[in-house]
């Protein structure tokens, strides 16, 4: 799992544009499997709808659940999301489960113990509620990555922490296997002026939506600062920042210092401090990395985009009965018989049985290539199918499997069951 990252995103998307810039990166990043999104702060349902705009633009079916709408203690400081004005122009979800965000986070982490990185880029209300609901859960995370705080070169308080200092104090005080803290000391050094950013967005399938959502933000500020995207990028490319160990505490008492983060660096240099704080950043490398990932979308998201995955007929590799031996002779049409036992791939886990457009398929994951999926056409003329993926392909959900099957069925001759010439 070291090269793959299961990610849960907790976000206050809708005010600052950097949340949307961050979500676009996660959707485009081939090394991230985005397991779900929870929203936090004023009008979390509108924020969930905004997150769904980008997920739909990406062709992704990602669970999105509205979370807490106000801080644990004290009055709310953040207003509703102005970017919601753009919802009328974009396809988006209109109905979301309510009251289940914390339970969804808890259930997802427990389903993947030691594998999930929780990326929190808004006020930490949902995370604090999660840790309180299940005290063992923090130890089951792979990592907690937070965008928040100001630790050594920029004065605080930082906005996310200021919006719920009580929640932040509780979360920073909770031991987790890794807590990576990305604050204003580094994020404020990664900026792009509005005109340059909008020019990079162009007609990009993800960034075009981000550019439209950014209208309300750019009305008052003519730049985007990569606060949240930088935190996301450190999941896959931590070398973009330099981290130093230490202990972080949060001032939770009301007053002008409420929400200030106090960092005490590791005095003995052993690197054993509870928090890994970003103390330096390579701004140009960050921007290069971001656009290298996003500009490559959708070609890097195999299985997420039909045009990139199936550029020409015959892109499928036959599999199953009639697939022939390792020389691939069956590409011109399956032949009778079954590959010898020693040539058949081994599989792991339980198969997934799907019925798509009246056709039954069995989908299995190869044991030695966890990104390779064999699709057996159980109701086809020859009970064969196709193979997709490779050793490092992203995991496929049921919706993506169904999409792949429809792509396959569109390329076979229904009279013979063979791949069309």
What does this structure look like?
With 421 residues, this protein is α/β, with parallel strands linked by helices. The protein has 14 helices and 16 strands. It has helices spanning 18-28, 44-57, 101-111, 125-133, 159-163, 165-172, 184-187, 194-201, 207-213, 215-220, 227-236, 283-296, 306-309, 398-409, and strands at residues 5-11, 32-39, 64-66, 116-120, 143-147, 179-182, 191-193, 223-225, 241-250, 261-265, 275-281, 317-320, 347-356, 359-366, 372-377, 384-389. The strands form 3 sheets. Strands 3-2-1-4-5-6-11-9-10 form a 9-stranded mixed sheet, with helices on both faces. Strands 12-16-15-14-13 form a 5-stranded antiparallel sheet, covered by helices on one side. Helix 1 crosses helix 2 (44-57), helix 1 packs parallel to helix 11 and helix 4 packs across helix 6. The longest helix has 14 residues, at 44-57. It starts with a strand and ends in a 12-residue tail after the last helix. Residues 302-343 have low confidence and may be disordered.
Number of helices: 14
Structural classification: alpha/beta
Indicate the low-confidence ranges by residue numbers. Answer: 302-343
Q: How are the strands of the biggest sheet laid out side by side?
A: 3-2-1-4-5-6-11-9-10
């Amino acid at each position: 799992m070291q090269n793959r990252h299961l990610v849960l995103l907790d976000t206050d998307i809708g005010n600052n544009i950097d949340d949307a810039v961050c979500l676009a990166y996660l959707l485009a990043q081939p090394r991230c499997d985005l397991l779900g999104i929870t929203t936090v702060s004023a009008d979390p349902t509108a924020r969930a709808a905004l997150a769904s705009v980008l997920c739909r633009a990406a062709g992704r079916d990602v669970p999105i659940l509205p979370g807490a709408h106000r801080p644990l203690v004290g009055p709310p400081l953040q207003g509703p999301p102005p970017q919601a004005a753009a919802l009328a122009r974009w396809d988006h979800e209109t109905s979301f489960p309510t009251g289940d965000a914390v339970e969804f986070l808890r259930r997802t982490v427990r389903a993947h113990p030691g594998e999930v990185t929780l990326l929190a880029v808004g006020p930490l209300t949902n995370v604090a509620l999660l840790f309180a609901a299940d005290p063992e859960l923090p130890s089951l995370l792979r990592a907690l990555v937070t965008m928040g705080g100001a630790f050594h070169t920029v004065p605080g308080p930082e906005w996310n922490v200021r919006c719920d200092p009580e929640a932040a104090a509780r979360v920073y005080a909770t031991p987790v296997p890794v807590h990576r803290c990305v604050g204003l000391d580094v994020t404020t050094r990664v900026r792009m002026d509005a005109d340059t950013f909008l020019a990079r967005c162009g007609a990009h399938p993800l960034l075009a939506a981000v550019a439209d959502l950014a209208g309300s933000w750019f009305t008052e500020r003519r730049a985007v600062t990569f606060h949240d995207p930088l935190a996301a990028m450190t999941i896959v490319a931590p070398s973009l920042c330099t981290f130093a160990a230490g202990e972080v505490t949060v001032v939770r008492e009301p007053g002008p210092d409420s929400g200030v983060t106090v960092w005490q660096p590791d005095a003995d240099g052993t690197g054993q401090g509870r928090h890994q704080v970003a103390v330096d950043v390579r701004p140009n490398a960050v921007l290069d990395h971001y656009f290298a990932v996003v500009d490559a979308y959708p070609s890097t998201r195999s299985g997420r985009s039909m045009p990139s995955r199936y550029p020409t007929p015959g892109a499928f590799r036959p599999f199953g009965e009639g697939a022939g031996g390792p020389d691939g002779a069956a590409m011109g049409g399956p032949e009778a018989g079954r590959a010898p036992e020693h040539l058949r791939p081994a599989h792991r886990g339980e198969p997934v049985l799907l019925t798509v457009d009246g056709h039954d398929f069995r989908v299995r994951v190869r044991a030695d290539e966890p990104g390779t999926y064999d699709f057996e056409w159980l109701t086809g003329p020859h009970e064969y199918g196709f193979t997709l993926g490779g050793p490092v392909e992203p995991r496929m959900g049921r919706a993506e499997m169904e999409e792949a099957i429809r792509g396959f069925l569109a390329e076979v001759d229904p009279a013979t069951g063979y791949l069309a010439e």
